Amino acid sequence: MRENKTLFVTGASSELGTALIELVADNYDTIVAHYRSSASRLLPLEEKLGDKLVMVQADFADAMSVRKMLDFMAEKELKPDHVVHLAAAPMENEKFKKLGWCDFAAATETDLRPIVDILGDFLPFMTKQKYGKVIFMLTSCTVGMPPKYKSVYTTTKYALLGLMKSLAVEYADKGITVNGVSPEMIETRFLDNLPDLIKEMNAADMPMGKNLTVDQVVPTLAFLLSDGADMISGQNIAITDSKH
């Protein structure tokens, strides 16, 4: 196992983020946990992990806020070997005719631009040490046909998928793996803006009649961060059933 490993998780205060950190904490010397406004959700982890956990704040809708976070990390010499990009705007249902370019631009600014800036800072370090792992949280919308009324969300996730695949190719000879994980709906706060009927219909379409839980998704993320996944790159791993 490599020494002095650092993990950086965006959207770390989410249910997925806290569960992932708790699962893999023993594998890292430092874990940098990004949050926007819910620092309190990270406090139990801070109490458990102590100085190993470094909390950083940024509003991903604000490019200057992201730059301030990255400058802080540079000042503290926090250089992650592993980056997991979980942060995303909430999923919403909206007909295309009610949307305009500003809706797509806002989603791009919030979900795509921050990880471009983050990786722009950290991939050179990973390249220098010839080692690194990057994971994008995508969606089952990028596997087969997406559901209706999610054009902004789906378009943004496809942009992230394109970035993931491009980076996987570009950094393949530099010891850096770049992958995506595309789960079906997960029962988290992320779905709060969706009508209950949509969530119930999705659950009914799953083999077990239920939406995914955090515990069914986090192990895949943990595996992609492990030494066992050193030869896996450029993959969009679906966590879903054969019908999707």
Number of strands: 7
First CA to last CA: what distance?
37 Å
Order of helices and strands: EHEHEHEHHEHEHHE
Enumerate how many helices there are, as a single number: 8
Low-confidence stretches: none
Q: Which structural class best describes the helix and strand composition?
A: alpha/beta
Largest sheet: 7 strands, parallel
Range of helix content: 25-40%
Strand order of the largest sheet: 3-2-1-4-5-6-7
**What Rg, in angstroms, do the CA atoms define?**
17 Å
As a percent range, the share of strand residues is 15-25%
Mean pLDDT: 88
Shape: globular
Quick recap:
With 244 residues, the protein is an alpha/beta fold. It has helices at residues 15-24, 43-49, 63-75, 101-111, 113-129, 151-170, 196-204, 218-225, and strands at residues 6-10, 30-35, 53-57, 82-85, 132-137, 176-183, 236-239.
Descriptive notes:
The structure is a single chain. 39% of the residues lie in helices and 16% in strands. It has helices at 15-24, 43-49, 63-75, 101-111, 113-129, 151-170, 196-204, 218-225; strands at residues 6-10, 30-35, 53-57, 82-85, 132-137, 176-183, 236-239. With 244 residues, the protein is α/β, with parallel strands linked by helices. The model has no long low-confidence stretch (mean pLDDT 88). The protein has a seven-stranded parallel beta sheet, sandwiched between helices. It is globular, with a radius of gyration of 17 Å. Helix 3 (63-75) runs parallel beside helix 5 (113-129) and helix 4 crosses helix 6. It is built from eight helices and seven strands, in the order βαβαβαβααβαβααβ. The longest helix has 20 residues, at 151-170. Helix 2 links the parallel strand 2 and strand 3.
